[in-house]
Amino acid sequence: MTHPPKIRLAEVSKSFSVRSPDGAGASWTTAIEGVDLDIRHGEFLTMVGPSGSGKTTILDLLAGLSAPSSGTISVDGEPIHGPGKERGVVFQQYALLPWKTAEENIVFALKATGHRRGEDRRGIARRYLQLVGLDGFEDRYPHELSGGMKQRVAIARSLSYEPDILLMDEPFGALDAQTRELLQSELLTIWKRTGTTIVFITHSVEEAVYLGQRVVVLRAKPGRVTAVVDVADQKPQPGVDLRSTPEFVEARHRVWNLLHDQSPIGATP
Ligand SMILES: Nc1ncnc2c1ncn2[C@@H]1O[C@H](COP(=O)(O)OP(=O)(O)OP(=O)(O)O)[C@@H](O)[C@H]1O
Ligand SMILES: [Mg+2]
Predict the structure, then answer these.
(1) For residue 52, is pLDDT > 60?
(2) What atom of ligand 1 comes closest to residue 30's alpha carbon?
């Protein structure tokens, strides 16, 4: 038996009104056009695309922070009308409260959003900070943390909600290579344990193929889905270093070619 899709985007388009350069009038710019996508229950879906291809726009729509200009987005068969507790978001830029410590930022967010009611929220905050390697930094204020550490607090905060759906916009973009690899494998472990449906945006083809079961490739002007590459079969048994397998190298090539064949528009490969 197959599950109905966890998330469905049906013919979704989003346009923004922008001021003309002389400031005299306004025009419309199409950020994404005709996006059709089914995301399976418990799937780890990654998205790659050039800057301006509408990745953040799609994530904002999935989070319910903005509404499509046309088309519909549904979760578990129900159209969404705004943010929901079942969807947790990690933004491209961390948004921490500067007057609260790392731990307080998480506890505050859990309280404010009504997550984990009746549980030991401090304990939860500490556990997730530990998970992202911030053991011993619980009492630091954001200005006392590096950029990568701040982003890790933001990731710990979203994980601590234990949402049904986790929406992540280039969460590891600002991290050093070593921390990034560590968090990639932590995230895979968490995903396998929890069965969370994850939508993960990245600029890195390598990261997209490493993490995703399917990789959505986008193009810009306007943002459109050009291909969905299934890489689930490329995943080896646990304990095997995925990145060094021929299947991984082949999948990375395939996605890289799809990404680079598309621009500039009209060019022949
Ligand atoms: N609020 C807005 N007002 C006007 N135009 C917008 C707005 N948000 C996005 N856009 C436009 O929509 C297009 C897609 O933007 P988006 O931020 O989704 O791209 P992206 O793929 O996330 O890029 P990046 O990789 O640089 O983060 C761009 O052309 C952008 O200028
Ligand atoms: Mg973006």
Answers:
(1) yes
(2) 12
- Is the pLDDT reported for residue 152 higher than 50? yes
- Least Cα distance to 82 among 65, 97, 106, 69 occurs for 65
| Pair 10, 201: CB distance under 8 Å | no
Give a yes or no: residue 44 inside a domain: yes
Q: For residue 129, is it within any domain?
A: yes
- We report the CATH number of the domain holding residue 69 as 3.40.50.300
- Residue closest via CA to ligand 1's atom 1 equals 16
- For a pocket test of ligand 1, which of 51, 168, 200 has the largest count of ligand atoms closer than 8 A to its C-beta? 51
Cβ–Cβ < 8 Å for 154, 95: yes
Q: 146 lies in which domain range?
A: 96-162
Instruction: Find out whether the beta carbon of 88 lies less than 6 Å from any atom of ligand 1.
Output: no
- Residues 9, 118 within the same domain: no
Residues 150 and 124 in one domain: yes
Do 245 and 203 lie in a common domain? yes
pTM score, two decimals?
Answer: 0.89
Distance between first and last Cα of the chain = 42
Q: In a mutational test of the pocket of ligand 1, which residue from 20, 33, 51, 57 has the highest number of ligand atoms less than 8 Å from its CB?
A: 57
pLDDT tens-digit map of 68-101:
999 999 999 999 999 988 898 887 777 899 999 9
Within this chain, do residues 30 and 158 fall inside the same structural domain, yes or no?
no
Residues 6+ apart with CB under 8 A from 69: 13, 14, 15
